[in-house]
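sorry to bug you again but im stuck and you know this stuff better than me. what follows is a protein written twice so to speak, once as letters and once as structure tokens for the fold. mainly i need to know what kind of three dimensional shape the backbone takes. anything you notice is useful, everything is just below:
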Amino acid sequence: MGATTLKKQSQPDLSREPRPQMDIVVVGHVDHGKSTIVGRLLADTNSLPDGKLERIKAYCQNNSKPFEYAFLIDALNDERKQGITIDAARVFFKSESRDYLILDAPGHIEFVRNMVTGASRAQAALLVIDVKEGIRENSLRHGYLLSLLGVKQIVVLVNKMDQVKYSQKVFNEISNEYSKFLSSVDVLPKQFIPVSGFHGDNLTTASPNTPWYRGVSVLGALENFVMAEPADELPLRLPVQGIYKFTESGDQRRIIAGTVQTGHAKAGDEVFFSPSGKKSRIKSIEAFNATPDSIRAGEAVGITLEDELYVRRGEIVSLVSTPPQIGKRFTSSLFWLGKEPVRKGDKYLLKSSTTAVDVVVEEIKSVFDAGAFRKSEKKEIGSLEAGKLTLLTKSAIPVDLAAEGELASRFVLVSNHRLSGGGQFLSIEPDDEAPLREKVTTRNIKWHPSKIPPQKRAEQYGQRSSLVLITGEKTSDRQALAEALEGALFQGNKIVYYLKMGNVVHGLDGDLASSNEYRSEHLRRMAEIVNLFLEAGIILIVTAAELTREELENIYTVIGRVRIQTVWLGKRTTDFNPDLHFGVSKAEGVRAQVNAVARLMKDRGIVWDPDKK
């Protein structure tokens, strides 16, 4: 649907610095007068194009309709016919100090999705309540949604005061009741203003009809809103959208591309990748037919690094000094648009920035019931309802929290390939992998990489470093496959080594008992040894009995998922899906298994024939 843009036509003054712009959303129940207030505000501040007001009045006269200021922004035919705002209309006006973008969001229950879209871009909000009709269900829903979306600067306009003869008593009753509700959902409005949108009372100047009101006008309230910190002054957040390499004409650049959400950086800055925990320095900044020396919020850019790192889409690039937080279990807000309610145990796809990860609902903490005017004890979040819940992602992801106001605090949930809800990360809760992630992050920040980059080793050795992790039933002959694979790769002139878990347990882990009590620490230390081998460009083979998905996730945390190939022997007894699965190992079947693993390694570019590379 289209949106109306109203702006006073004038020649730009190119000699002046760009004026700051504040985005403000206007919300409220249908017919409570949002569009009328915005239209009158435009008219009273001389922000309309020449002749616009006269054309709308002529339109009303020609169609035998009473004139309404709402028609100044309700551009769609359906809106004029029905008298409701469908889209989030965008209108511009100027005060002496700054520019404003007003998002007039729809109040009808059927268009809450549009209201959320408008409010998600706003720095502040005007919430409109019809003094005669009083607080309605959507008045409550919109107030709670503003809280969930992180809009902290809110002014409530009690509208149509002319219809109650500008009664201070009625105004106070509405204000007190709605203040109590907003307090229950952790919203503290800056003030309540008695207004009449149609007559213009208290919109731009103090009204003589409300001598008992001593506060500022709506325009004054807008001027009192505090501008958000410029996006490029916030911590650097560059979600990795893709990695590109161009091999023609000897071009060896490996370009990491994405759009800068917030912050800025320059060539030479040390950057950190989350959640992998890798670091390097920006070698160059790439753009079409240009090589700029810096990047800023809003720019689509490519960067190259001094070190060749294996990173994936969905990682977040930050400065080493200000990385995002990393977690798997989150307390989150959620506004739900799906047809089926959200229940404990439900599974969805969570998307945040360029990250996409499977997620399960662990707990419904609270549900906001707009009809009952309170939070309820319901254990499901229905369509057009909001609440708080605990989410557990399949793997750790980088996030910022809502209290920090970063874009990375926002996420959406996808169900059956359809965007079905959205919310913010409120806090990170403990999970079993958290201590290990902290150790790995510290290790990576302190890590001193070799001056020989991984790509040079790969070209020299004719292979890419990788771990082949062979697990399976305790009774399966994992060692036979490992030894045969090591021999075949060695005969193919590959640099390969079979590391037995027993060598680790009775060597480096000599200070620990070999019992199952210390299994997780044995695996952690094994993974750190493997990481050293992989940094040296070697292919490593490791065997371990009956690894679980949780144990494998811990190994991924230490080494990185991209460098691990998994093989299971025998009957499946744990809960993860390996890259290859063979039945019970028999001597005559080992050769076929080795060939299958070798094909997997060739398909993934881990090994290759020198004359074919």
Observations:
- Residues 1-16, 74-88, 106-112 have pLDDT under 50 and may be disordered.
